[in-house]
């Protein structure tokens, strides 16, 4: 068997295991040893297999998510770049006041970030945050529910990319028109559960500026032959540490924006 066929077989096998884990909501051992070490291209190939399967079941793509936008997390996983995954319609848990059942996920965690809604296609590689910002129609406070099919969150870059960037779902607050004057890097974030602060951060934690993360994704999406389209939602990356999604009432506060609140149930 050729190396190409062996790799293709490995990609299909890993995709099958991850798809079954998600369908059954049962964690599986890390998959990184089944693919070439740190072969991010192979991991994205796994992700694509399962994206196509999910679309074939009738789901619709509503946007993308960006992960690994924190330098600390990149260092922890031994990478020097973010990653991305696909947002499907069933991942949208609703807006303000959404209720999320942890039992419908595997090992959910929650993180706060900005969400962008695109008002124009991005068909050419943006050179800067300012350039990509011209394609943004609106911005919202958002909570991403990150969820790993890998037991114990024992992941590296290959595991998380193959597992659709560990995306479980999202909640977006009210959308407001985007303008550069919002100065997203300067904004501070607090996440509160049942009155206790559980995560803090700043807009600058996302590659220095959430628009930098969006510009990276726009370029990468073009490289993958799937450019960002008008109407898509993009989760720009965590502003602070993610925490386990324990039952309770959550509030995400970002100065200058209306707070987002949601409820997690067992």
From TrEMBL:
The keyword Hydrolase applies. GO terms for cellular component: cytoplasm. Keywords: Hydrolase, Lyase. Transmembrane segments: none annotated. InterPro entries: Fumarylacetoacetase-like_C (IPR011234), Fumarylacetoacetase_C_sf (IPR036663), Hydratase-Decarb/MhpD_sf (IPR050772). Gene3D superfamilies: Fumarylacetoacetase-like, C-terminal domain. SUPFAM superfamilies: FAH. GO terms for molecular function: 2-oxopent-4-enoate hydratase activity; hydrolase activity. It holds the Pfam family FAA_hydrolase. Residues 107-258 form the Fumarylacetoacetase-like C-terminal domain. It comes from the Bacteria. This is Fumarylacetoacetate hydrolase family protein.
């Amino acid at each position: 068997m050729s190396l190409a066929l062996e790799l293709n077989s490995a990609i299909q096998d890993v995709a099958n295991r991850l798809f079954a884990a998600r369908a059954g909501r049962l964690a599986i051992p890390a998959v990184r040893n089944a693919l070439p070490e740190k072969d991010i291209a192979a991991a994205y190939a796994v992700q694509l297999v399962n994206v196509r399967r999910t679309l074939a079941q009738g789901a619709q793509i509503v946007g993308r998510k960006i992960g690994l936008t924190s330098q600390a997390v990149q260092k922890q996983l031994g990478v020097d770049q973010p990653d991305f995954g696909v947002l499907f319609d069933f991942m949208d848990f609703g807006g303000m006041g959404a209720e999320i059942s942890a039992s419908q996920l595997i090992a959910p965690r929650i993180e706060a970030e900005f969400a962008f809604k695109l008002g124009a296609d991005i068909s050419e590689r943006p050179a800067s945050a300012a350039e990509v910002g011209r394609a943004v129609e609106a911005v919202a406070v958002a909570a991403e529910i990150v969820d790993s099919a890998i037991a114990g969150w024992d992941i590296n870059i290959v595991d998380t990319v193959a597992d659709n960037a560990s995306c479980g779902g999202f909640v977006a607050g009210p959308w407001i028109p985007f303008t550069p004057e919002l100065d997203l890097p300067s904004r501070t974030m607090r996440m509160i559960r049942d009155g206790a602060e559980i995560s803090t951060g700043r807009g600058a934690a996302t590659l220095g500026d959430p628009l930098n993360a969006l510009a990276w994704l726009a370029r990468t999406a073009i490289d993958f032959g799937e450019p960002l389209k008008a109407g898509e939602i993009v989760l720009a990356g965590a502003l602070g540490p993610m925490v386990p999604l324990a039952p309770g009432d959550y509030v995400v506060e970002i100065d200058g924006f209306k707070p987002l609140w949601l409820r997690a149930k067992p």
